[in-house]
Amino acid sequence: MAKWGARKYQILLAVSATALVVGGVGGLTSHVVLNRGAWAGGIAITLAFLLYDTLTQLRAFGAKVDVLAVLTMASALWLDQYLAGVIIALMFASGRALEEVAGRRARASLTALLEKAPKTAHRYVEDRLETVPVSEIIVDDRLLISAGDTVPVDGTLASAAAVLDEAALTGESQPVAYAAGAVLRSGAINSGQAFEMRATTTAAHSTYSAIVRLVEQAQASKAPLTRMADRYALWFIPLTLAVAGLAGLIARDPVRGFAVLVVATPCPLLLAAPIAIVAGISRAARRGVLIKSAAMIEALAGVRVVLFDKTGTLTHGSARIVGIESRSGMTPDALLRLAASVEQACQHVSARAIVAEAQRRGLMLALPDDIEEVPGAGVAGRVEGHAVVVGNASFAARSAVPEGWATGVLRQSALQGLSTAFVGVDGAVAGAILLADTIRPDAPRALRGLRQAGVQRIVMVSGDRVEVAETIAAALDIDKVLAERSPVDKVAAVRAERGPYQTAMVGDGINDAPALAAADVGIAMGARGAAASAEAADVVLMQDRIDRLAEALTIAQRSDHIARQSVVMGMALSLGAMAVAAAGYLPPVWGALLQEGIDVAVIVNALRALMPALGRRTAPGLPPATIQQWGEEHDRLRPLLDRIDTVTHRLGDRASASAIRDELIVIASLIEEQLLPHERQDEKQLYPQLADLMQGTDPTAAMSCTHREIYHLARLYTAFVNSLTAAPLTEFEVFELRRLLFSLSAVMRLHFAQEDEMFQALSNE
């Protein structure tokens, strides 16, 4: 029965098409019974189901476009105008079948995302471990949560410690350490070692289920959207009935009134609008955006307020190294190699980020010995004869009181919303690795695209800490920041932003699902997001790129515009045909054929929604191999920038400023041998390719200007270093060296960020 409900209009389309063909064959062979019976049967079957749907809809006391189709087919049976009636039936079934296909494709594409949700748990039964469905867990069950598993129900921690990734629940981008007896919430992911817990609730009463109930309540409270066709029907239906009635009364011929109904049957509303909308859905799908229904593409076109979650939406959602502070003459790469060698034995999220960065830089890691991991503090071991410790400041120094340098690093990290992994070597703090959930390179471009598409207000609402949220918002075009918000608070924020325009919410975590359901348009990051958010959302970004949202909004607006254009054009032609029919110059069958001609015109216009707008770039973007090549070049040079930053900070310490003369000379050599050749290669090889893909007379002029500033700073720095004498550095020399190095590092990091963003903008991958 469910299968019939999902495909009923496709079946009706097949029935009406078969009836038209069979009846036509009967007419050609002079088989009157076959001719009239087939056409009448096709009309009657379609009319029966249409009448049921229309009566169901009219319980809301709203005028529906289907009313005219019902009246026309009923009149066709009454007046024996079977050919005209079966053509109308075919036309109606075609439009509804198109909407059916679009909705079913969206639901099918979503199934794969929902299958990612955990369905089983590991439970102890008399010291024997068994795998059971989550629904079978009861209070006081002893559960084992392996590394990478999701906590299935709420409970208390039975092991000594646990480290959980709660980004999906709270938006906190960094893992949280818990000690024995702590309360654990379902939906968090174990990012450390396996641990045991005691269930305190069943799955039905867990945190996750509470969020699901919030989703259901939000969906129930959201007002249903009115279809475009039904809005136009509010005035078109009364006008049509009035003209048909007057024509029939004046001519004293019901067939003339029926002829008016035939040409007035809203073919543009039944066909053109659905075709344009479905074409827009198809085009969005090709760009990696799943729009679940035709009504949603209309709603998306009207969005003027967008609320964003932070973690996993505007940011990557995982820890990444953003800086390395080294001491005692150790280079950043040397510090990173020792830390990563020890962290190989750890499953912590930060540990994985440190190891990944070392591997990306091509550092050869050593096998550690005597590994000791203290949950919530850090990990220690021996690497090539050195005692290496990675963790918080006290653990890294093996001392209860951090050094003054460590205190300064912690203060800097707190201000910038960073997390810090201190590295101790042979009993002394040798440096610190700074980690953060960094902004997606496509996020600034996505927000600019939304502004260009007409979005008037952008709000970031996050469960993360205030300082972290404000740090991210400061780098983006955000109108308002709401931090430390629970799922209930997020729903309230969405409702508070509602106004005369449609409001959209964008998120990826379980905690975002209620807000997605409450918004006029809920948009989920489906590539890596939680299944609950994808289920609650109306639009799913299937690729892990936030800039696809701006594209989807543009596609929706264009599809909505073309749909309205086709409807207005078709209705204007229908109104002209109504006048001719009312005057008695257009019999019903010819009126039906004329209406088909109008259909063809509006359908051809509606199909333009499949194509990109005129003037938009359709040529291939940068080849993936080129993007990878230049991205790897940036990765190769970033360690040099870390080294520059380290020397700059050491220059601020008068005690060590004069002891790093050799390092200043090495940096000057690296700038000449690595940095400047890269920039020259950019100018000669990359920028000509970019210019071919970008519009304008000299589209890379601003980037070339940055190159000139880099050359200028590099020349000044090299000349200054070469002018130094063997005497201790003077206060002026320290100041000038720090100024040049700070400037060069800042310009280079900004330049790399601009190029990385440009690469993504010109990529079709």
UniProtKB/TrEMBL annotation:
Family annotation (InterPro entries): ATPase_P-typ_cyto_dom_N, ATPase_P-typ_P_site, ATPase_P-typ_TM_dom_sf, ATPase_P-typ_transduc_dom_A_sf, ATPase_P-type_domA, Cation_Transport_ATPase_IB, HAD-like_sf, HAD_sf
GO molecular function, one term: P-type zinc transporter activity
Keyword Ribosomal protein: no
One Gene Ontology cellular component annotation held by this UniProt entry: plasma membrane
Domain (Hemerythrin-like) ranges: 627-759
Transmembrane intervals: 37-55, 232-251, 257-281
Keywords: ATP-binding, Cell membrane, Membrane, Metal-binding, Nucleotide-binding, Translocase, Transmembrane, Transmembrane helix
Top-level class of the enzyme under EC nomenclature: translocase
Primary localization class, coarse: membrane
Domain P-type ATPase A: 116-216
Annotated EC: 7.2.2.12
Pfam families, sorted: E1-E2_ATPase, Hemerythrin, Hydrolase
Compartmental location: Cell membrane; Membrane
Substrates-to-products reaction catalysed: Zn(2+)(in) + ATP + H2O = Zn(2+)(out) + ADP + phosphate + H(+)
Family stated for the protein in its record: Belongs to the cation transport ATPase (P-type) (TC 3.A.3) family. Type IB subfamily.
Protein name: P-type Zn(2+) transporter
Organism: Salinisphaera hydrothermalis (strain C41B8)
Source species taxonomy: Bacteria, Pseudomonadati, Pseudomonadota, Gammaproteobacteria, Salinisphaerales
